[in-house]
Structures are given as structure tokens and as C-alpha cells.
Amino acid sequence: MNFSIANLKFSRRAFLRVFSLSALASLIPSKASGIGDYRNDKNIPKQYIQNRDTPGFHIRSANPFMGVDTANWGLVVTGMVKKTIALSYEDLFGFKLHSQVSRLKCVECWSAKAKWEGFLVDDLFDRVQPDPAAKYVYFESADSYYESFTLEELRRDRVLFVFKMNGQALSKEHGFPLRLIVPFKYGYKNIKYITRIEFTDTRKRNYWFNNGPYSVDGTIQPGIDHPLDFNKKPLPINGGEVFHPFDKRPS
Ligand SMILES: Nc1nc2c(c(=O)[nH]1)N[C@H]1C(S)=C(S)[C@@H](COP(=O)(O)O)O[C@H]1N2
Ligand SMILES: [Mo]
To answer: Cys-Cys with 87: which of 91, 116, 171, 173 at CB 3.0–4.6 Å?
Structure first.
């Protein structure tokens, strides 16, 4: 008896989760119509997350954003999978915890390292059971940002879904409640505020391919300067120093 009551509760709860996700879609600024380019808006409230150079670890958020409220947050994993799932914030703590120290390297010439904690890609992917024909994984986040990977590169070592940074819950600036850490890719591939993951058989593009000079691939290449695709030509690093042809040399 208890068993069936528990099951009933669970499915009702799962239903409510999916239901609240569709309500959430209308609240996410990215999905709302009529919002212009925040970057030109001089009236952005101070508490908005935006690009900021801070000691220890800079903040890069392409679209100023208020941050995620866990009551409305959910993660949907869908597309070419056997089972679409929806996770709530508490569900993140149901995975086996893994941790690593790794460095995030932004194409804007800074990097920083942190201790990251979260769960393995395969521990999430095993729950949805991707179709063998699925070759790509597309990510969307609550701030209008999106990324794209091959399934194969996500399955490499040291790729981690993280909800803790340096022993604390991920801060609202650094991607609360969930981000991806891919140490062998430039910072822009390390997507924050993830809300949706979709398995596909064709490649979708990412935010910085569509809005800047950066590649969809975004792999950090030793001996090559970033931006990787500046003028669509990789720039060699001269004597270990990162420079651009337009950088002034000291006289
Ligand atoms: N959702 C989302 N993820 C994002 C970004 C963003 O604007 N939105 N910026 C990217 C860039 S360009 C970098 S360098 C890193 C920076 O991470 P940080 O803000 O935690 O330092 O986040 C990446 N992930
Ligand atoms: Mo970046």
C-alpha cells in the first residue's frame, strides 16, 4: 500500500515539474519577445549579472541576466533519447559526486582555476539513453545563451556538470544552479545556467559562432592564439606571448 502511494506522489510531482517548466518558459527573458539588446540599455539594475573583471575569477555573461530562481528552474533532457527527463534543483544532488581542479581559459586572454564539483556526463546521459544515431548535443540556458558539442567530446575525461565551485554552491554569476565544465575547450563552451539539453543527429551552432568570430568547436590549441577564428586564420603564439597584429608593441 505504502509503495503505491509513494509512486503516485512521485508521478504527480514529476508532472508538476514538467508543468512548471512550461510556465517557466514564459518567464525566462530570453524567450520573451520584444527585449532588445541589454548591452545598450543604460538602465540595467545593478544586481544584473554582466561582464565584470573580479579578482580570482572574472564573470562573463553575454546577456545581462538576473540569475536563476530554483523554484522556477528545471532541466529538460530530450531529443533523440529513449526517455525524455525533467530534473528539479533537488534532483541534482541525487547523482554521485565527483570533483576536479581545472582551469577555465577565456578567449579574451585571461584564465582562472577552481575546484569544481558535480556529476559525470554519462551519469546523466545513462538516464535518458541516447539513440545510437545521436551525434551532437545542444545546450540552452536561461540567459539566451546556447552551445553545441559532439557527443564524443562530452564523453572525454574531465568533462563535468557542476553545481559547486571552490566548496560553495555555484554563485549566481558563475552559473547557478548548473553549468558544464569542459577544460579542453575555451571558456565560452563552458555553458552556465543550463535549462535544456537536446540530442540531435545534425550539428547546431553556438552563441559565439553566431554573434562573434569564434568557432563552434572551441578547442584550446597549444601554440595558437585566440580568438581561434580571428579573420578565420589561427594566429601562432610568438615566443609564448599572446599577441594580435593590432596590439601595439612597446617602443
Ligand atoms: N549561459 C552562459 N554561459 C556562459 C557565458 C554566457 O554568457 N552565458 N559566457 C561564457 C564565457 S565567454 C566564459 S569565458 C565563461 C566564463 O565563466 P564565468 O563567468 O564563470 O567566469 O562562461 C561561459 N558560459
Ligand atoms: Mo569568454
So the answer is: 91
Distance 82 CA to ligand 1 centre (A): 30
Superfamily for the 12-237 domain: Oxidoreductase, molybdopterin-binding domain (3.90.420.10)
Pick the ligand that lies closest to the CA of residue 61: 1
Q: Which ligand is nearest to the CA of 172?
A: 1
Residue nearest to atom 16 of ligand 1 (CA): 60
Q: Is the peptide bond before 227 cis (omega within 30 degrees of 0)?
A: yes
pLDDT digits (tens, 9 = 90+) for 79-105: 999 999 999 999 999 999 999 999 999
C-alpha cell at 169: 554552491
Q: Which of 110, 120, 244, 95 is nearest to 180 (CA)?
A: 120
Pick from 233, 232, 236: nearest CA to 224 = 236
pLDDT band at 212 (very low <50, low <70, confident <90, very high): confident
C-alpha 242/C-alpha 166 separation (Å) is: 28
Residues 202 and 134 sit within 8 Å (Cβ to Cβ): no
- Helix, strand or coil, per DSSP, at residue 189: helix
